[in-house]
Design brief:
Order of helices and strands: EEEEEEEEEEE
Shape: globular
Largest sheet: 7 strands, mixed
Strand content: over 45%
Distance between the termini: 40 Å
Radius of gyration: 13 Å
Number of strands: 11
Oligomer: single chain
Structural class: mainly beta
Low-confidence stretches: none
Length: 123
């Protein structure tokens, strides 16, 4: 078991930045690939970014490439999502998730989820 807790969301103006954190507890954090997803009202939960166990490889949804950066610190059992140049369409609840093996885009493939953190971008 691993427990995930997101933090760092909030209300920001368009063009602003945020850093989301995902703190993990329980089993060894470094054995899990991590993903960030988001869910806007009335829409499905979608993949935003992923990072491998070592942090050596990352992947991003096309809609966020160049603005989002995923990272992790295995010594601190924490994953991060740095968001730059926020847009109103980035408004959503952001979730982190963990799974063994590789990063995949499908939410159902992830074993563990946090409770989510709200990001609201005003225009």
């Amino acid at each position: 078991q691993v427990q995930l807790v997101e933090s760092g969301g909030g209300l920001v103006q368009a063009g602003g930045s945020l850093r989301l954190s995902c703190a993990a507890s329980g089993r060894t954090f470094s054995i899990y690939a991590m993903g960030w997803f988001r869910q806007a009202p009335g829409k499905d939960r979608v993949f935003v970014a992923g990072i491998t166990q070592s942090g050596g490889s990352t992947s991003y949804a096309d809609s966020v490439k160049g603005r989002f950066t995923i990272s992790r610190d295995n010594a601190k059992n924490t994953a991060y999502l740095q968001i730059y140049s926020l847009k109103p369409e980035d408004t959503a609840v952001y979730y982190c998730a963990a799974r063994r093996f590789s990063v995949v885009l499908t939410p159902d493939a992830y074993e563990y989820w946090g409770q989510g953190t709200q990001v609201t971008v005003s225009s």
